[in-house]
Amino acid sequence: MTDTPFPDHGKAALALLNGHHPLSRKAGQFLGQLAVDPTPISDPQSNWLAKLLERAGLPALAKGGGQ
């Protein structure tokens, strides 16, 4: 896997959903919403997404990728 940051939250969410990463039901619902909704995400949502990406060993979200 590359270390290139994800350009937007939708692509990051899809990478987590399509990978074989253990996710809770709540995390899966959150990621499903991010994958289909282009609306900018809040700081708490961005922080949660960053934690999920880090736990999965995936690249971070690019700066401004939640907007």
Mean pLDDT: 91
Count of alpha and pi helical runs: 3
Following the backbone from N to C, one meets helices and strands in this order, namely: HHH
Poorly predicted runs of 5 or more residues: none
Helix content: 40-55%
Based on secondary structure, the structural category is mainly alpha
How would a textbook summarize the main sheet?
none
- Strand percentage lies at under 5%
Rg, rounded, reads 11 Å
The total of beta strands comes to 0
Quaternary assembly? single chain
Give the termini distance in whole angstroms: 24 Å
- Overall geometric form: globular
Describe this structure in words.
Helix 1 packs across helix 2 and helix 1 runs parallel beside helix 3 (43-56). The chain starts with 8 loop residues before the first helix and ends in an 11-residue tail after the last helix. 54% of the residues lie in helices and 0% in strands. With 67 residues, the chain is mainly alpha-helical. The model has no long low-confidence stretch (mean pLDDT 91).
Which helices and strands appear, and what pairs or packs with what?
Elements: H1 9-18, H2 25-36, H3 43-56
Helix pairs in contact: 1-2, 1-3
